[in-house]
Amino acid sequence: RPRREVLFFPSQVTCTEALLQAPGLPPGPSGCPCSLPHSESSLSRLLRALLAARSSLELCLFAFSSPQLGRAVQLLHQRGVRVRVITDCDYMALNGSQIGLLRKAGIQVRHDQDLGYMHHKFAIVDKKVLITGSLNWTTQAIQNNRENVLIMEDTEYVRLFLEEFERIWEEFDPT
Amino acid sequence: RPRREVLFFPSQVTCTEALLQAPGLPPGPSGCPCSLPHSESSLSRLLRALLAARSSLELCLFAFSSPQLGRAVQLLHQRGVRVRVITDCDYMALNGSQIGLLRKAGIQVRHDQDLGYMHHKFAIVDKKVLITGSLNWTTQAIQNNRENVLIMEDTEYVRLFLEEFERIWEEFDPT
Ligand SMILES: [Zn+2]
Ligand SMILES: [Zn+2]
After folding, report:
1. Per-residue confidence in pLDDT tens, chain B, 175 aa
2. A117 alpha carbon – ligand 2 mean position (Å)
3. B132 chain-A contacts, CB cut-off 8 A
4. CB within 8 Å: B141 and A4
5. Closest Cα partner for B51 from B86, B78, B14?
6. Which end of chain B is more exposed for a tag (fewer CB within 10 A), N or C?
7. Cβ-based contacts under 8 A for chains A and B
8. Is A90 annotated in the active site?
9. Which residues of B134-156 are buried (b: 16+ CB within 10 A; e: fewer)?
10. Kind of pairing, strands A82-87 and A108-111?
11. What's the gap in Å between B73 CA and the centre of ligand 2?
């Protein structure tokens, strides 16, 4: 049965160090001395779904400032996963955006120039799993807002969202 | 095969009068004298999915100011569909919000009081179809932003989102 899941937020604030340092391992008594809970949360599940990427990751995100999600994306890039990011120029300029760090790390980023917002919040993992919902990738949203994120292994939806990604990717080509 | 669809925005600006005056009819040469195109659009498809409701409609929306979507919801209420609306208090207070009109029409509305945003943007039609995505129900978003809205006939997702709706509905009970 193909994966069909939903994560609701706000997420409990948990420690995600184990996940970001040794991705793939289940969480557990990691010996981390911090005082946060070391259990699963909506954020840790989202991180886990992203860190499962082996070949490609497309991100199409209005806002991206969560340090944990930023680290996860950099980790994937270091592992050789082909990461492409589309974002909105208005949010990109704000304090705390991860976009500058991703660019510095050598990740391809494109953004809009026009009046409307690039308001999508989706990710495609290995051209196989679609992650989409209401959640902007900010700590504020993760910890305080009521949000939903669907995680779906669905050939048809992946195809349609990948087409949307490629359309926008071409349109935002700066050259 | 259960319905599984996605609408991408921005939507072409089309006339939705025929749909809102004689719901259920296919669009066509309606004799409407206005100068807008009378073809299908993402907005008309969204309206059509909502207007299919026969018994219940749950709305959980961060922002709701689109006059067309407001009229559709009022139409359903007049037809005897049980409509319940959850929204965010911050957006509700803004100019152009449909929430006041819905309340005046006798539709039940509840909203949050707390710091985080009620940032969901979903609807459940007849406890059978889930409509969810990145789109806030504003004309600005519909006509200018890049957005997605999934329309899914999916028992499991409908159950999970309905549970989320009822949780928030109870929590926002003002009494
Ligand atoms: Zn820790
Ligand atoms: Zn017309």
Report:
1. 789 999 999 999 999 998 898 555 555 555 788 899 999 999 999 999 999 999 999 999 999 999 999 999 999 999 999 999 999 987 777 778 999 999 999 999 999 877 799 999 999 999 999 999 999 999 999 999 999 999 999 999 999 999 999 999 999 998 8
2. 27
3. 133-134, 148, 150
4. no
5. B78
6. C
7. 91
8. no
9. bbbbbebbbbbbbbbbbbbebee
10. parallel
11. 20
Per the structure block, which two tokens stand in for B16? 């939705």
Structure tokens at B80: 């005897």
Which candidate from B122, B140, B154 shows the least CB-CB separation from A148?
B122
Here the tokens at position B123 are 């609807």
Of B118, B140, B143, the CB nearest to A146: B118
Q: Would you call A141 and B164 a contact, using CB atoms and an 8 Å cutoff?
A: no
Contacts of A161 in chain B (CB under 8 A): 6, 148
Phi/psi at B161 (5° precision): -70, -30
Question: Does A8 reach chain B within 8 Å, measured CB to CB?
Answer: yes
Exactly one of A90, A112, A126, A154 is catalytic; name it.
A126
Nearest to A148 among B112, B120, B145 (CB): B120
Bridge partners (DSSP) of residue B110 are B86
Token pair, residue A102, equals 């991703």
- The structure tokens listed for B18 are 């025929």
DSSP states along A23-75? TTSPPS------SS--S--HHHHHHHHHHT-SSEEEEEES-B--HHHHHHHHH
CB B99 within 8 A of CB B161: no
pTM of the full predicted structure? 0.94
3-state secondary structure chain B: CCCEEEEEECCCCCCCHHHHHCCCCCCCCCCCCCCCCCCCCHHHHHHHHHHCCCCEEEEEECCECCHHHHHHHHHHHHCCCEEEEEECHHHHCCCCCCHHHHHHCCCEEEECCCCCCECCEEEEECCCEEEEECCCECHHHHHHCEEEEEEEECHHHHHHHHHHHHHHHHHCCCC
Q: A116 vs B146: CB contact, 8 Å cut-off?
A: yes
Tokens representing A58 are 């497309």
Angle formed at CA B134 by CA B170 and CA A82, multiple of 5 degrees: 125
